Structure prediction request, 189 residues.
Amino acid sequence: MDRVARALSVLFNPMVALTLWAAAVIALHPAWWGAAALVWLLLVALPGLALAAGLRLGVWSDADVSDPRQRRAFVPLAAACAVALAGRALLFPFPAVLRFAATAIAAWLCLTALASTVWKISMHVGSTVGILFLSGVALGWLVALALAWAPFAVAWARLRLRRHTPGQVVAGAAAALAAVGVALLVAAP
Prediction:
């Protein structure tokens, strides 16, 4: 069972899940490739490079940035990238669905960064809940329905691997739901 939990944790790592989501968006909406590539660049590539450099330099102890003290540095960095993307998406022409996604992800990372000052919440579960909603908006609600199992499976995996407590898992999901609410108010597609 640990092998299944590890596989789910890798597949639904926020950066992996967002890469797969962006690829699906490009496949279904080829005209959005430039905007989707910018989403990927600012939300996956730049934080991923910072993560890789931090791992190499010993700044981060692991790829999940499990240590709460280390998250206090990494999550605000990722949030800054997301806020830059959301600002670009809100101020200049951008596909409405991707503007919604950028705003939701920026709100989620800001909430997560705020929570990380005092507590470690599950970014895996939060991103999975967020991707579920973003999939419904960008790819269709049948896709979201097909992925409805994912947040529960990822929550189980993170608990099974002892990466989080039940409260941290629930807090990750709650942060994502709140962020989707913020995005609906600010940038509904």
Q: What stands out?
A: The mean pLDDT is 95.
